[in-house]
Amino acid sequence: MREAGCIVTELSAQEKARFQAAVMPLYEEYCADYMDIIDAIVAAGR
After folding, report:
1. CB neighbours (10 Å) of residue 2?
2. pTM of this prediction exceeds 0.85
3. Domain range list for the chain
């Protein structure tokens, strides 16, 4: 990605957890039918 000129922002584990907690209500509201998939993705990233 960087080679293509994109800016990549890396988060610490603490920042990543804060971001995930902040967006979870959005997932629950707009993606309720896909929460099992979202939960699996989040678990895989841990």
Report:
1. 7
2. no
3. 11-44
Quick count: other Cβ atoms within 10 Å of Cβ 20?
14
Going from the C-alpha of 36 to that of each of 19, 32, 39, the distances in angstroms are 19, 9, 5
Please tell me the distance from the alpha carbon of residue 36 to that of residue 18, in angstroms, as a whole number. Answer: 20
pLDDT (tens digit per residue) in 1-46: 889 999 999 999 999 889 989 998 998 899 889 989 988 988 897 7
Longest dimension (CA), the chain: 36
Q: What is the DSSP string of 1-46?
A: -GGGT-------HHHHHHHHHHHHHHHHHH-GGGHHHHHHHHHHT-
